[in-house]
Sequence to fold (448 residues):
Amino acid sequence: NHMAVHPSWSALPAAADGLQGDKDSQQSPGDMAAALGPGAQDMVAVHMLRLYEKYSRRGARPGGGNTVRSFRARLEVVNQKTVYFFNLTSMQDSEMILTATFHFYSEPPRWPRAREVFCKPRVKNMSCRLLPPGPPARLHLLFRSLSQNTATQGLLRGAMALMPPPRGLWQAKDISSIIKAARRDGELLLSAQLDSGEKDTGAHRHSPHMPYILVYANDLAISEPNSVAVTLQRYDPFPAGDPEPRAAPNSSADPRVRRATQASGPLQDNELPGLDERPAHVPHAQHYHKHELWPSPFRALKPRPGRKDRRKKGQDTFAASSQVLDFDEKTMQKARRR
Amino acid sequence: QWDEPRVCSRRYLKVDFADIGWNEWIISPKSFDAYYCSGACEFPMPKIVRPSNHATIQSIVRAVGIVPGIPEPCCVPDKMSSLGVLFLDENKNVVLKVYPNMSVETCACR
Fold:
């Protein structure tokens, strides 16, 4: 079964049963199909949903890696031949290709008409027998890679001759070496031609039987701290060239500077930190400059001296130099009463 | 929230990709249980917060007050688990990626 093509897997039930039988723990396949949009009916979507199901259920790493990329085909008719184009440019440089498979649907063979040959019966009652029809035409699979800016036929990367199966079914072929070679040469546009020697009937156009490619990879960057943002965060909250993210869009040049007092330990009292005392030993003391502070009656705050310093200098010097907020008499009376 | 334990521990958090605007291209899952870590790493730290050696020492130094300005250790994720995400890439191709460290299993003081 083409979905079981990956050696490390047990044969998956035929894709034909779709996902109806499987209830996703989080959402029904119908939801997932809806999320896939119009592409939900094609086999590549079914295949990927099944891989996801497999991972979610059993934690089975897809193909032994941490990434599976699918590539849908774009169909073109070139010289009356059906050619499928695949754009592999969305592969990330950090994704090391483990294997790649090409999945395609083989139509049931159209047996050639029985051959009528001129025959002279040698024996009287021997009637002319029609010769049995010849073997069905072989299917040739040709892969070419193109670099993005050339319109040539592209470089032939691989060719396979396949016996058409007795009935229509999906098949899968390992094309790992073809994909790896094309990527090494920087040619990430691939074309595949399924040549059965007959003229293109256009039957495949937009059918759910469009071929597709799966690339199983190991993303070496996925363990980076923020790898989820690289592939899933599409809108950068601060696209380049935007004003400083801190400034509100319509704010004037706000003179105020956000700051935090250097509270060295839990504040025991509500005295304000000393004004002009800057303990030399505190390495990270914030150096406030006059112009940075609010133009207001309040003077610059200084970080509180460390507990050691306070103990050394004794409370009185500290109290003398520290600023106690001066309230009016009425407020002080109220406070004392409270 | 109020009856949550004070000590560093795992708290429940369900993330819905629609809330962070990623649901347009994420096919599945639509949401997942991410959890988060919160709580105190005060001295003395109970075994349950599985402090590292460094966190234990830092917590003692802070309690003794030898050096001013030492904060208490932080409550952070310890064991985490992966999440498989099925999404559409920029070319509308379906991609499956298994992202590590997407959900918190245990928290600890570090």
Observations:
- The first strand of chain A starts at residue 67 and ends at 72.
- Chain A has a mean pLDDT of 69.
- The interface with chain B takes residues 24, 26-27, 31-32, 35-36, 39, 44-45, 48-49, 51-52, 55-56, 61-62, 66-72, 87, 89-90, 219, 222-223, 227-228, 231-235, 264-265, 282, 306-308 of chain A (CB under 8 Å).
